[in-house]
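Run log // design_07
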């Protein structure tokens, strides 16, 4: 397994590139400590009930505002999230910009998210801290890049997977953000196959069967188009 690291000693992202994947994925195991993980989970579950939005396969919380094409009406991030948005921004994950939005997703075992791209509302980088459980993230070629003569099934577009362990930081940029889709199968257990390309950066092994528990992900991004509340009220 790669050397344990915590947020204090990640200065050079280059050494965390997943070389087996198209550009660019960074996978940083043990980005946060167990104490930080527990604290973050406590904060997520302290949020009032209306902060949660229930979707069919997961539930979520939006922090920082609601991204939309007209511009996100920004809300101040709470200090417990700001600590991490600032540290990840300082790594240069969003070029010289600062993350201003966090989506919290909660997945129970058996839940997942359909393959998708995160799209143009965000600076083309997504960074994710995982809490509580591992998951396996699957990547797919976009529809336009696959042979049009053969049926374009999810299976024929699948390219690789990543084991994303709790306490890790994952960064997707470049083609992996802009072109390839990512998704999580709604299963209760992951059997690690040779398609999981980052096993050497984890403490798991080929063939392991890993039961999932509840996973909370903090998806940290920069939304470039924002609207200040006082502009909406017609003030200067
Ligand atoms: O939970 C994750 O790691 C993925 C979340 C995601 O893809 C999204 O919120 O768009």
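design_07 sequence
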């Amino acid at each position: 397994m790669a050397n344990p690291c915590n947020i204090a000693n990640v200065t050079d992202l280059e050494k965390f590139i997943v070389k087996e994947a198209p550009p660019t994925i960074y996978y940083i195991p043990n980005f946060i400590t167990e104490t930080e993980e527990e604290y973050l989970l406590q904060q997520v579950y302290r949020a009032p009930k209306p902060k949660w939005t229930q979707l069919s396969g997961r539930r979520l919380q939006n922090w920082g505002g609601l991204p939309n094409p007209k511009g996100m009406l920004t809300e101040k991030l709470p200090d417990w999230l700001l600590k991490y948005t600032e540290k990840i921004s300082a790594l240069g994950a969003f070029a010289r910009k600062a993350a201003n939005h966090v989506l919290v997703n909660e997945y129970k075992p058996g839940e997942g998210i359909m393959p998708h791209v995160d799209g143009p509302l965000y600076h083309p980088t997504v960074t994710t801290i995982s809490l509580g459980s591992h998951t396996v993230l699957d990547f797919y070629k976009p529809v336009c890049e696959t042979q049009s003569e053969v049926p374009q099934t999810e299976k024929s577009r699948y390219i690789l997977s990543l084991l994303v362990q709790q306490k890790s930081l994952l960064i997707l940029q470049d083609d992996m953000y802009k072109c390839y889709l990512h998704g999580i199968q709604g299963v209760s257990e992951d059997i690690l196959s040779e398609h999981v390309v980052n096993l050497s950066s984890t403490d798991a092994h080929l063939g392991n069967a890993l039961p999932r528990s509840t996973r909370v992900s903090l998806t940290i991004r920069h939304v470039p188009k924002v609207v200040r509340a006082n502009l909406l009220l017609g003030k200067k």
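Residues 103, 105, 113, 118, 128, 182, 217, 219 surround 2-oxoglutaric acid (CB under 6 Å).
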